[in-house]
Records
---
Amino acid sequence: MTEGLRTLAVAAIALAGGFAVQSFRTAAIPVSSPERLVAELRLSQIAALLLTLTAGAYLGLAAVHETRTGVGFDVALAGGFFVLAGYTLTSDPRQALTLLALGFGGHALLDVAHRPGGLPDGLAPWWFTVGSATFDLLVGALCYFPLLRRP
């Protein structure tokens, strides 16, 4: 196991674990309580930061592989995820969490599209794209989880 893989795995587990705790705590608050709205707002803000972080990885990959054909599309998509994350900061928390869950799902599809035959492959090791897609799906589900716990 390389140092990069080990470090990214620990970071992903820590970030997803902390986000899971916040998501479960939010879902446990009664829906009629004003604290629920505040908790959903905080959860959506953290999720927006995480989406920005995961999308930013493709900016770094594009910079490293600047001469590869198609990396400009990755940069444009990363910009789209930044815009989505920024938009959710001014949205109703429930709408924001729904949009962020969809955004993470879209980012997971982007990760999968970097396998051979899709978007430029070989920008990142296979473990990175698989791990990123898994992280995205997990965090996206955790974004939507408190909304499922509504009557």
Note: The chain has one domain: 3-148.
---
Amino acid sequence: MKILLIAPQLNSGRYVPETPSRALLILGTLAQQRGHEVKIIHADLMNGHIADELAVFKPEVVGITCNTFQVKSARFIAQYAKASGGKVVIGGPHASSWNKVPVDHTVFGEGENAWLELIGEKPDIQSIDDIPIPNYDLVSLDRFCGVAPVGILPAMAIMASRGCPFQCTFCNTPIFWGKNVRYRNPISVVDEVELLHKRYGINEIFFQDDTFNLNHEWASQIFNEIIRRELNKEMLFKLDCRVNEKLITKEFLGLAYKAGVWNIFYGIESGSQEMLDRMKKGITLAEIKRAIKMTHETHIQTQCSFIVGMPGETIKTLQQTDALISEIRPTRYGWAFFCPFPNTEATKEVIAKEYIKQMDYADYGYGKVHCRTDALSYEDFEAFQGFSYQ
């Protein structure tokens, strides 16, 4: 069959995507390996209109991946695809709340086996290691800018594991990937790294796993294999980690630095212990301070994220976050307003209190105020200018 896979635009308009959709690359590779003709499109990179692409390619199956910030574009694409006569399949983090446009199939969570069935193939994925390394020839890697901050170009992101065992109330990862963490074979992970470097010229990899430092033995195998192949002499790496005392050790950081890790992303989210507890982050302020200090002492840069406007937020908690940022002095940090992703615990709370704006998902976007709290109004958050640390 002819299969067209599409990553929609963001609701707020075009931008340069950081990396290609890994989900579409995997689904496309699975289909291609079984003899189907596959084309992948990232709508933000298109020069023409999706209707023209459908008319020229004439796909029998159109697969759309959709997160909450892509709903507007996804709906239009689905409408055009349905009108063209192809079978329309939608998946991705927002698939569980898909509405407005009828589609033929909706795939929830990990979709490899469901996808194979939909295209008439045997669903034979038994473990994460049965998923092939993507065929990156399906996209033009030079059109993607890499996940900021970028240490060296060209840059790409990959995932070496799936799932997260933690309970953060704002996060939709457990809804999509589940809480059972599955780890790829370290050799396969580094094979993909080496392929991207030697065949496609990629010089930096961001391991986009939810918690790369959850399993130190597994992570150490990846680091040591990178070192054994001397990829650390030619490449740079970034990680996404947690600050928990048991997960940040001198040994882990030292080996990461030796393997070429130059930046670690920490999702800190608040400088208020009360807020951290309400978020069910499972971390303490002491652990945050310790982790940032140890990371800097290992000569690895830090990038920290913060959420503004979670349930319970007050002027005092915002001041505490401001004070923490100034104390820990991360290399970089960013903040965003709380976004009520479908079906999360925090979303259910703001809906129950009627503290959520009556907005269509097509209006969701980065930088928008979606919720209020007991103490702060929508207008209070609209007036928020950020934190003082520069």
Note: The CA atoms of residues 8 and 74 lie 5 Å apart.
---
Amino acid sequence: MFELKPIHREAVPNALRKAELYRLLNESAQAESICYDILQVDPDNQRALITLLLSLTDQFDQGIPVNSPQELLPRLQGEYEQAYYAGIIYERKARAQLNGGIPGGGFVAYELLREAMFWYERAEAIRPPDNDDATLRWNACVRTISARRLEARLEEKPIMTSE
């Protein structure tokens, strides 16, 4: 088969810009590929890891299997980044559920949004003073739950048997 060609370390900044541009052009698979190339020569590059994570989550609603972005979280430097991007993953999974029109998807979306909100609250507690991104995302989740009238699943009642 074919062997991948490595990129040059000096080309990383340009490759990062290109990956971010491809994401903006809704070409997330291309951005994903570029990020993997960058991480081959610079495994701890935080911008590449975040762009890769976002590229993978961009693909949730395309119905194609993608690599798990959760695997990237431990590689992010900082508790804030790990919590914030965990929230992003859950929120984007929820939005993919809502956009997919799957029966019962509203219950799943609600649970995923609540999980995202949990992570956003953790991020908010340790955020840098000038960064309200986690609060903005938390509010977006609340508005989605409200606008879509999403609710948790009802707990099933136990079946009563007579003995």
Note: The longest helix spans residues 79-100.
---
Amino acid sequence: MLRTFTREWRFLRKDRGAQFWLALALVLSAIAVSFGIAEVREQRTTLATLVQEDAADRANALSTQADWGGAAYYAYHLTYEPPSDFAFAAMGQRDIAPWKHRIKMLAIEGQIHEADTRNADFGLVGRFDFAFLAASVAPLILILLLYDLRASERTARRHDLLVATAGSPRSLWLPRAALRVSALAVLLLVPLWIGAAIEGTSLSIVLQASGIVIGALLVWWLVVELVSRIDASPSVLLTSLIGLWLALAIVVPAIAKTAIDAANPVPDGGEILLLQRETVNDAWDLPKEATMEPFVEHHPEWQEHSTIEQGFEWKWYYAFQQVGDQTVAPLAEQYRMARLERDREAGLVSLLSPTSLVERAFEKLARTDATAMIAYEDRVRDFHAQLRAFHYPLMFPEVEYDPALLEGLPQYDPAG
């Protein structure tokens, strides 16, 4: 075994092409990890600054208020989803889904979906992170390392002699390919391990991520091994393998995405925002009862305090904000469930595409997948419900304003 390894190591040292591809893998891995760490640190710095400024801004706004309605209107609350300790490896949906909002007591769906149209196009650009490298680039490097091991010897008419000398094809080609695959795996993973140590990623996640990378390389090794057994020239084998990579990495995911999107239509976030704004704006011109009746249906505990006697009262104002949420609730739920269904079906289809499967696995480990970002939206809604639960008992019975009670305002917890 040692002699075989020594022989293949000497052979690899003489192969300048293989050395180039292996060095490139190391450089790309280091770049991907470095970019990822820089991005998550920038996000954490941004959040740390925003948390401080949010608290100061809210305290300043509340210090000038004289009633509960004004306090609820002018006090903003920062909600956010901090990057996980493995997000540097897979930014995932954080590139296209909002991960921070400043909200207040107004209708919540509009505040959530205001960012929908601002961030949607950025995801088309994509990001070079480790997940993309492991899923899409590493298989190409592996193909370039392995595709001509047999074919080049056939072209040079040394194949049969080498096999006869080695005793069997397996004892010749398996160690040579295994050394290259192992070297590629190590060079890809070393920067990831260093990045994980810097970010404090748990050992369990690091081991899972390493297993995903090694497993993906083994799958592509099997693919290359099967194709390279064909008696063809190196150029024909390379073309075939690149075509197979294109099919599995690009064509299958693209067709699947088109089919899934068509089967699960998702309302546009702007649609939800527009409907809610129309509902809220129309309430100014409607009789007060048109707002208070649907509000009381959801909050019967405030029925005794639902009579509006003046032209403007804060409780009426916040009531029609909630009615705006109630109006768009079916559309918002359809939007949420359709995205979850799309993600579920994409997970099933990814079994046909190793690249998609690897990227999704990394995003799940990093908590940057669609499910995680939808869960963040749900936490924003839950926090907004806590704000309403805090303000309504003060606003509807018209409790005398006491700024000291505002110390009990709910505080957003990113951990949920």
Note: The beta strands are 77-80, 100-103.
